[in-house]
Design brief:
Radius of gyration of chain A: 18 Å
Strand order of the largest sheet of chain A: 6-9-10-3-11-12
Distance between the termini of chain B: 55 Å
Helix content of chain B: 10-25%
Strand content of chain B: 35-45%
Shape of chain B: globular
Structural class of chain A: alpha/beta
Strand content of chain A: 25-35%
Number of strands of chain A: 12
Number of strands of chain B: 20
Low-confidence stretches of chain A: 250-255
Shape of chain A: globular
Largest sheet of chain A: 6 strands, mixed
Order of helices and strands of chain A: EEEHEEHEEHHEHEHEHEEH
Number of helices of chain B: 9
Order of helices and strands of chain B: HHHEEEEHHHEEEEEEEEEEEEEEEEHHH
Mean pLDDT of chain B: 94
Oligomer: heterodimer
Number of helices of chain A: 8
Distance between the termini of chain A: 33 Å
Low-confidence stretches of chain B: none
Chain lengths: ~260, ~425
């Protein structure tokens, strides 16, 4: 589904990703872990098409399409969803209106019939139950005045409504207390399916106690330096990132 | 004495002889103003009030004086229909009153609504004071021009205590003619003590043309009167419109004004409000959206002259392409106007690198115990918000439109006429 090969990317002239390769198949949950500054968030931003990220080499194909050639909205319509580390507050834009506009724009781009307000409301009600979100949040402006936990739950709620093929969760655990973390994880788990893949970007292992990954990758110096199953996350938790070898260093030098 | 030759604009408007009204004081007044206009010509940008609005291009144009065919021009009433506005209506086409398009039958009790020409014919004397009290300042060329040439306009009175529920619709329509023409209208609005009125001033286009319209209006609110006014300007994109309104508020009188400036090539609106009675309150909300090569200039001057008066002004400007917006918001709290509460905010959005908005909030305070706040900003669409919307699948143009409309929303939020509010809000999205 997602095939990243030798990806190099620059931000403000500084090379952040230096040859990252990763393959994700439908139904899989991949965790991307790594120290601060390793390029974790850059990966999420490059995949979703944010301005200011310059890809200098490598390729990303998504269902056989060159993802890097598409504008952000087309990537969304193709099925890529980014749950933001810092969801943006947009005063004056109603949350429900925003979500319906987004869903219908995606459906239109895919040649599907747009939902009318009754159909949309029905869909929203179903998804609200899963996320345990108060419908009061729906009547407010997008993320405006939301608490940290509400913002992150709203991201997962949007994901539930938009039903992407690939969901990228960028540090979704940051700033959450343990209760909020559990709620968010429960929302994510409810959406796991054989058709949907997840890329869970996180600094800490604790999120992976609640969202159990199939694969764990360690990103350091702009490349994936270790891959394994969920036990790799536990090893990181125990030993920190210091043991992770920097690219270019001989394998095992710091182990 | 050698006078420099007048610019084509001035020369063309001096071409036609003044039509006599048969009212001696009025004809004398008109001659006086025309002579003053001819002598002073158009102000240039060295005049402070016109610093950001250059009239050089206008000065090179020629206009015919009025439209002799206006009475017979075919007009589709759909071009001025507005949801939530189906009360009494007065329609002018190219500055000429059209009884056939107006709705003046069965006016509600307490409402007087008629064309100025008709009111003057019936009894000019009650209008003598208000029509004579111009005190033109430097650069008031258009006020003089209007005083000299306006033969018609709106006379609207609400008697003391009357509450007029259905909004009164004043329509000023520019219609294509054989050439470019200039029209001038003079309005007099008065609300008696405790009277209430909802008013919609509507500038619309009955087809593309490049006419010039000027209007001068006096609005007087006696003690305790309440005015809710919507000023909806959607004139033809080639036309020019220059307006001055004076608003006088008596004790405890309240005015709420919602302004939408969308159309026109060269547009200027000067609103001068005087909070003359204790406890008077004025709320203004406005948005101007120049695009293409439009130039939209708003000049707001609010004087607090009495105790415990309040004014709140919330304005938004959005300029796209090569559009140019000008906003001046001047608040003056006069000596003795203690307890005044004045606030003014003007936030602006530039959607293109070639768009420009010049904003100038001014605050002068000569009284004690005053609350005053003002601020202005000019910025661009927030890139993070734009990306957030696009990452959810909303195409770039739609995302920009959505954010622009959201930026302007505060202006319409407290407009009480829901049907009209929805209609106007949809235009912010278009």
């Amino acid at each position: 589904m997602l095939k990243i090969e030798n990806l190099h990317a620059r931000v403000e002239g500084k090379e952040i990703l230096k040859g990252l390769s990763l393959t994700v198949n439908p139904g899989e949950v991949h965790a991307i872990m790594g120290p601060n500054g390793a390029g974790k968030s850059t990966l999420g931003n490059v995949l979703s098409g944010r301005d200011g990220y310059e890809v200098t080499a490598g390729s990303v194909s998504f269902d056989g399409v060159d993802l890097l050639q598409l504008p952000p909205e087309a990537r969304a319509a193709a099925g890529v969803f980014l749950a933001f580390q810092y969801p943006v507050e947009i005063p004056g834009v109603n949350n429900t209106y925003f979500l319906r506009t987004a869903l219908n724009a995606q459906r239109k781009a895919r040649g599907e019939k747009e939902l009318d307000s009754m159909q949309f409301l029905k869909l929203v009600r179903e998804k609200l139950k899963v996320m345990q979100i108060s419908d009061e949040l729906l009547h407010r402006a997008v993320n405006e005045g939301f608490s940290g936990g509400e913002k992150k739950r709203n991201e997962i709620f949007q994901m539930a409504v938009l039903e992407p093929k690939l969901a990228i969760l960028d540090e979704t655990d940051s700033g959450l207390d343990i209760d909020a973390l559990k709620q968010v994880a429960q929302g994510v788990n409810a959406q796991r399916s054989p058709e949907r893949a997840f890329l869970v970007i996180t600094h800490y292992q604790r999120l992976l106690d609640y969202i159990e990954p199939d694969f764990v990758h360690v990103l350091a110096g702009g490349r994936i330096v270790e891959s394994g199953d969920k036990t790799l996350a536990l090893k990181l938790e125990e030993h920190g990132y210091a043991w992770v070898r920097e690219p270019g260093e001989p394998a095992g030098a710091a182990a | 004495m050698n006078q420099p030759a007048p610019v084509p604009f001035v020369a063309s408007l001096l071409d036609a002889p003044l039509t006599a009204s048969g009212i001696a004081w009025l004809d004398a007044l008109r001659r006086e103003h025309l002579a003053a206009f001819a002598a002073a010509g158009l102000p240039d940008t060295r005049t402070e009030a016109w610093k950001y609005t250059a009239l050089r291009a206008l000065g090179q144009r020629r206009y015919a004086n009025g439209d002799a065919q206006a009475a017979t021009r075919a007009i589709d009433p759909a071009v001025f229909a507005l949801p939530g506005v189906d009360g009494p209506r007065l329609v002018f086409v190219n500055g000429v009153f059209r009884a056939d398009l107006s709705a003046l039958d069965e006016l509600p009790a307490g409402l007087v609504l008629q064309p100025l020409s008709q009111a003057l014919r019936q009894d000019a004397e009650p209008l003598r004071f208000v029509l004579s009290r111009h005190q033109p300042e430097q650069g008031d060329a258009f006020v003089r021009l209007n005083a000299a040439l306006a033969g018609d306009g709106v006379v609207l009175k609400v008697v003391a205590g009357a509450k007029i529920a259905a909004p009164v619709h004043l329509v000023f329509l520019g219609a294509p003619a054989e050439g470019e023409l200039a029209w001038h209208l003079r309005h007099v609005v008065e609300l008696g003590e405790g009277a209430e009125l909802a008013l919609v001033e509507h500038h619309a286009a009955g087809g593309e043309q490049q006419h010039l319209g000027t209007t001068v209006g006096d609005i007087t609110l006696r003690d305790g009167a309440v005015l809710r006014q919507v000023l909806f300007q959607q004139a033809a994109t080639g036309s020019s419109l220059i307006r001055r309104s004076r608003l006088q508020l008596g004790a405890r009188a309240q005015a709420m004004l919602h302004v939408l400036e969308l159309g026109g090539a060269l547009v200027r609106h000067e609103l001068r409000a005087e909070l003359a009675g204790d406890g008077a309150r004025l709320d203004t909300r406005g948005v101007f959206m120049p695009h293409g090569r439009q130039h939209i200039d708003t000049q707001l001057a609010i004087r607090h002259q009495a105790l415990d008066t309040a004014s709140e002004s919330v304005w938004r400007g959005v300029a796209d392409q090569r559009g140019r917006g000008v906003f001046r918001g001047a608040i003056l709290v006069a000596p003795g106007a203690d307890g005044s509460d004045a606030s003014l905010s003007n936030k602006n959005l530039l959607l293109s690198g070639q768009a420009e908005i010049d904003t100038k909030p001014e605050l002068e305070i000569y009284a004690d115990e005053v609350k005053a706040a003002h601020g202005a900003t000019v910025g661009q669409l927030d890139e993070r918000s734009l990306f957030y919307l696009r990452s959810r699948g909303i195409p770039q143009d739609e995302a920009r439109t959505l954010l622009t409309a959201a930026f302007c929303r505060a202006v319409l939020d407290d407009l009480p006429n829901a049907a009209l509010r929805e209609h106007l809000a949809a235009l912010l999205v278009a």
